[in-house]
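Hi C.,

You asked whether I'd gotten around to modeling the 721-residue construct. I have! Everything is below, sequence then structure, no commentary in between.
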Amino acid sequence: MGLVRLTWYSNIDPTKTVEITNYMKTRTEAGDTIFYDIYTDKEKATDPAKKDTGLFFFKGKPGERFAICNAGGGFAYVGAMHDSFPHALELSKMGYNAFALIYRPGAQTACEDLARAIDFIFEHAEELEVDTDRYSLWGGSAGARMAAYLGSYGPAGFGGGDLPRPGAVNFGYNVFDNMDEFAAPEDDAFVPGAPVHFVDYVEGIYVGYKYYETAAEEGFIDYDQLVQYPFGHGLSYTTFSQEMGTISESNGAISFDVTVTNTGSVAGKDVVQVYYNPPYTNGGIEKASANLIAFDKTDLLQPGDSQKLTISFDVEDMASYDMGGNGRYVLESGEYTISINSDFHSIIDSQTYTVSSDIDYSAGRSTDLAAPANLFDFADGGLTYLSRADGFANFAQATAAPSATLRAEDKALFVNNSNYQIPTDTGAVMPATGANNGMKAVELRGAAYDDQRWDTLLDNLTLDEMNNMIALGGYQTAPAASIDKIQTIDCDGPAALNNNFTQVGSVGFPSSVMIACTWNEDLARAFGEGIAAMADDMDVSGWYAPAMNIHRTPFAGRNFEYYSEDGFLFGRIASQATQGASDNGVYPYIKHFALNDQETGRWEMLTTWSTEQAMREIYLKPFEICVKDNRDQGGASNGHPLAVMSSYNYIGTQWAGACPNLLNNVLRGEWGFQGAVLTDYFANFGYMDATRSIHNGGDSCLINRDMTTNNVTDVSADAIL
């Protein structure tokens, strides 16, 4: 059975199938009803296609909320056993009342059946012992479309009753319907025949707390009803007071003191959280009304003790990215509220900083080595993105069910291994190879990035050595005999080190989320130092971490590896972890660069669509902070050693591992990154290709065996350079 493959379902778990079957058998033998018809006998007689529709019930706790899971199958069949049944079973184990819908294939009829199923559950809620408040819809593949449609239009939109829309819709596996020619090869070892997927970041910059606070300020939501545990909320065994001193500006930086006093009866630490609320022009540059911009943590304070913390941040850090024209950062004129908060919503005290006229950073901010400009128009996709204008007036349009048809202009730009063409006639001059000039790698230990001796050293490399270092970069850096470069070992693990080949592992630390929740930069640095100490014991040089993707949704599959929903907190904590490791001889690979915020479909050409403003202000922000901190605080011209791991997903129409605007223009050009870029695990998938990667900013492939496309097929001067 493990060898069976259905279209759209390449992974079938026999163990789970047996578990589900036994669960149903046990429930039935106990006299429980596990299947409910949603149509009457008369309706089924009138339309025989409705005969086999209904709900399988995976019962949770009496009185708990309900969820409906909708299997995929491309509207050709219902893959319940491999999709909705496993999800429903797991939800029931957590106490939720879960239903798996068997629907009529076909987009319209499937949505009508889902609407009828919701009606049925509401009508029989007492009998079923379910709470109908803020129910949720789940789905994969075609089921995701159903969940999205009902989430957008409610049951009434498909012939159901005038009932509330779901409180949450959790779905993935969106597939384009006009990209069949780009599907992965049928002989791909991991994703045979996989179609091109997509995910739309239609919320723009309004991610996490930035949405809730802004929507509350605009009167679009009832904050008290929706938010229970705000970002920045924390508990303590004691209590504190915070007093904000007068803000001042000097040399482009705002600073002020905050006096923190332990007003309770036991010792403890407190966090000073600083947010700004910028002036917003209706219909202008999108701006959230709460933005974390600084924080600090006290020492351990005894009852009655106080500590004065000095807060400082650059004025330019409040600038917004304006996508108009060529693109730029700009600090618009007006009043900026600077506040100290106990969480993003609860202001302790605030003051106003006034900008008299717009400050244009078209030439770049003080930390930029090249002027930022619009570089990701190809990732916009022509979507409707959520806007604050007129109180989020376009919310329904922006969050409506997505289109599964890729625009012609975007399709024309899409590239994978089936249509990639190696660039020719670039004018590059072939460098020397195999020169045997006697220079060895050890002679350049500690040399500056722009030391001319690097060219002399590289002249010694042969084409085979270059290809090996590119093709076989998985869990190692490959040796090169011509320059006496030895093999070094790299290991994976966000909270520990694990050598997949020797089976040796290190002590595990708390997860990244826990470390970020401390708001303690010193602790984050100590974490990195601990990783480096264990790496030394294990003869490990590189660390595939920290993972730097955003908590875009609580349902993301690897949130435990990622620090936060806020890019600033994320960047500050991760930066200290990387510096702690690199100061002690280990080079971290910050990953997954970039917009790899969803696990579902990430191997299967997951095209990610976003505005450039959201990319720069949300998703690239932690990477930017980390790269610039390591660049500027290394104590030498090279800064701290740092590497980057690119991501599986596409940025619009371009694979992130071969996206020159991402890897060259932004990472190296604007931020000044001087390290190597490694792919994520290199398994081809129909789009990973070493030649395309090195032509566009990549350096090596995370694999240690021949996967064909990890070998460089282009030996032109342009590829070698």
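If it helps when you're writing up: The two ends are 49 Å apart (CA to CA).

Thanks,
B.
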